[in-house]
Design brief:
homodimer, alpha+beta, Mth169, Chain: A
Chain lengths: 91, 91
């Protein structure tokens, strides 16, 4: 008997979306306040962002994957007026 | 005239919180659906997580920073029942 295993090498894009440094982050401030109330000291600042993992098929070539992830980040996941984003490709 | 610049070397902890793989992510599915409606193809899966940047004072030693960030992630930022977290320290 012959067992054939096919690995579908799907690629993963990681997208990090953060508020621009000049934009106030009340959610981060609330977390910082809670953390301090819980007794943690030496916290200078907390900022919250978003993190997305996008799994892409192998139907796209590596360059296509990078372009697609970049476009999705810019057009769907981030609001470029107030947010910065960073895309990382993992194979 | 003598200008003295003091750099306060604050350390930054980055915390990534993601849903455990076995937990359904309806928000991620909604994003995947929207992205497909917008014409992007070859998207196998989208999962949304959270991302936090914690700036810590230099009053803590490097080991203390790591421990503090780990505790904040476990006790405040993530729900260990349904979420995984990862902590990175950046100097």
């Amino acid at each position: 008997m012959l067992l054939v295993t096919v690995y579908l090498l799907s690629m993963k894009a990681k997208v990090y979306v953060t508020l621009k440094p000049s934009v106030l982050d009340p959610q981060g401030k609330a977390i910082q306040h809670s953390v301090e109330l819980l007794g943690f000291q030496g916290i200078a600042d907390v900022r919250q962002g978003k993190y997305f993992e996008i799994a892409l098929d192998q139907s796209l070539d590596p360059k296509g994957v990078e372009e697609a992830a970049e476009r999705i980040a810019r057009e769907v996941l981030a609001n470029p007026v107030i947010e910065d984003y960073r895309v990382e490709i993992e194979e």
